[in-house]
Design a protein that fits this description.
Belongs to the 6-phosphogluconate dehydrogenase family. InterPro entries: 6-PGluconate_DH-like_C_sf, 6DGDH_YqeC, 6PGD_dom2, 6PGDH_C, 6PGDH_NADP-bd, NAD(P)-bd_dom_sf, Pgluconate_DH. Keywords: Gluconate utilization, Oxidoreductase. The N and C termini lie far apart (about 65 Å). The protein has helices at about 10-20, 40-45, 60-75, 90-100, 115-120, 130-145, 160-190, 195-200, 210-225, 240-250, 255-265, 275-285, and strands at about 1-5, 25-30, 55, 80-85, 105-110, 125, 155. The protein has twelve helices and seven strands. A seven-stranded mixed β-sheet has the order 2-1-3-4-5-6-7, sandwiched between helices. It folds into two domains: about 1-155, Rossmann fold; about 165-270, N-(1-d-carboxylethyl)-l-norvaline Dehydrogenase, domain 2 (Orthogonal Bundle). By secondary structure, the protein is of the alpha/beta class.
Length: about 300
């Protein structure tokens, strides 16, 4: 199949190469990289044959909104837009409504696989009309892992369902990473444990906590045993916040995911005002000693 792909960053570039290696003709566009196949979105659309499929892999928010709006003015009825970025599911519903007014289909596709997806394949969670999903299915099948791809694909529901599923996936990921990180720190704190990396490696097979994330942590420690070259500052890209917000909206308790999100906030505070207040209160009510700021 021929498809247009907008956004050739780490994920988009690797997806293009995986699809090409499986016989698809992919026209890529990204004004910020030298590997772009065309110069403009209009050029990309002109290189495709109807019914066209254009897959978007750009940052969520304004960048995705601008791209969808531009494509809405360039594409024709019967064409299809797939947003494979990490957009919020409510944005998908607005995009689908706008494109539907012009007879253009829309699919939201949560993509998981990171930079390893080019070789290993991706897990896909899609939302959209059944006929639109069927139209794009040859592309989805080529992106899925080899072997039994049915385990890594779901048509989760109508528009918005795919990105909602991916949002929750990323929220769970926050919690898993935080648990592994806390376990690592506790192991490091005990002098009896002289091979922390070895302990974590022993967990990677035959235990109930084995996972790809744990494998990656062991690899990271192999390259830098003390993680001395990595800052403790941890950013969040939005999905964890959205997961907590949706949990509140649905009255669903998600204490682990919430704590993991707050831990990331804490990582950005070199000297926490809240903890200063706790220290001051301990001194006030109990006369406990406080550490003064070095001048």
């Amino acid at each position: 199949m021929r498809m247009g792909l907008v956004g050739l960053g780490k994920m988009g570039h690797n997806m293009r190469e995986r699809l090409r290696s499986r016989g698809h003709d992919i026209v890529g566009y990204d004004p910020h990289v030298g590997s772009s196949d065309v110069d403009t979105l209009a050029d990309l659309v002109s290189r495709l044959e109807a019914p066209r499929i254009v897959w978007i892999m750009v940052p969520h928010g304004q960048a995705t909104q601008d791209t969808v709006h531009t494509l809405g003015n360039l594409l024709d009825p019967g064409d299809l837009v797939i947003d494979g970025g990490n957009s919020r599911f409510t944005d998908d519903q607005a995009h689908a409504k706008r494109l539907a007014a012009r007879g253009i289909g829309y699919i939201d596709c949560g993509v998981s696989g990171g930079i390893w997806g080019r070789e290993r394949g991706y897990a896909l969670m899609v939302g959209g009309r059944p006929e639109d999903v069927a139209q794009a299915m040859p592309l989805f099948e080529s992106l899925l892992p080899d072997g039994d791809p049915t385990k890594c694909f779901v048509h989760a529901g109508p528009v918005g369902a795919g990105h909602f599923a991916k949002m929750v996936h990323n929220g769970v990921e926050y919690g898993l990473m935080q648990a592994y990180a806390e376990g690592y720190e506790l192991l490091c704190a005990e002098h009896l444990v002289t091979d922390v990396q070895g302990v974590l490696r022993a967990w990677t097979a035959g235990t109930v906590v084995r996972s790809w994330l744990l494998d990656l942590l062991v690899e990271a420690l192999g390259a830098d045993p003390a993680l001395s070259e990595i800052s403790g500052y941890v950013d969040d890209s939005g999905e964890g916040r959205w997961t907590v917000e949706e949990a509140i909206r649905h009255s669903v308790p998600v204490p682990v995911i919430t704590a993991a999100l707050y831990a990331r906030f804490s990582s950005r505070q070199l000297d926490s005002p809240a903890m200063k207040a706790v220290s001051a209160l301990r001194q006030q009510f109990g006369g406990h000693a406080v550490q003064k700021v070095a001048l």
